[in-house]
Design brief:
The protein has about 200 residues and is mostly helical. Helix content is about 90%, strand content about 0%. It is built from seven helices and no strands. The termini are far apart.
Length: about 200
């Protein structure tokens, strides 16, 4: 009789223990989601895109694992709880990495503004020295129009930079540098041809 009582008591204790391990770790899920949202708010999707995508993939995998575990009779979310805690820590690190990367891109954009402004000034100077014959005048007019477009793009990049959209500003300035460099080469070639005659 005592054995049966002890066995029954042990069984109840075991069930209580299993029930304790069987709760979906909602608090850890909420913390992980909050940390991922915080990383996105810090533009981790822009400045640390690979790390941010890995966070989302890991979260999806954990949630799939939780759903699978939740469908079992005896549930144990210990492994998923640990994974969620680790993911929360990682998300905080990704947020910090994104902030550092954004700052670096901001510094890079400032340097690119110096480059583009110097190239624009140089091109304006070269335009005064370029041949102005019949065909030359038409080409110079075309270049003048292209330079207006480029300066407009640089102004837009300045606005983006002021708004803290450093990555978009960098892309715009890089495209402008490519165009103004091509014009620079064209002008130098035209001037060199005149000097050779």
């Amino acid at each position: 009789m005592k054995r049966k009582i002890l066995f029954g008591f042990a069984s109840l204790m075991m069930l209580a223990l299993l029930a304790g391990c069987g709760k979906v770790p909602q608090e850890q899920i909420d913390s992980a989601n909050l940390a991922i949202e915080s990383a996105k708010a810090a533009e981790a999707d822009v400045y640390a895109p690979t790390e941010y995508a890995a966070l989302q993939n890991d979260m999806n995998a954990i949630m799939t694992s939780i759903e699978a575990e939740n469908s079992k009779t005896f549930k144990n979310f210990k492994e998923q709880t640990t994974q969620l805690t680790n993911l929360t820590v990682t998300a905080d690190q990704v947020k910090a990495n994104a902030a550092v990367a954004k700052e670096q891109v901001g510094v890079e954009v400032q340097e690119l503004f110096t480059v583009i402004n110097n190239l624009i000034a140089e091109n304006k100077d070269l335009m005064t020295k370029a041949p102005k014959g019949k065909e030359g005048a038409a080409v110079l007019e075309e270049i003048r129009n292209e330079m207006v477009v480029i300066e407009g793009a640089v102004a837009e990049a300045n606005t983006l930079y002021a708004e803290g959209k450093y990555m978009a500003a960098r892309d715009k300035v890089n495209a402008a540098i490519e165009n103004v460099t091509a014009i620079n080469a064209e002008l130098n070639d035209a001037i060199a041809k005149v000097k050779r005659k």
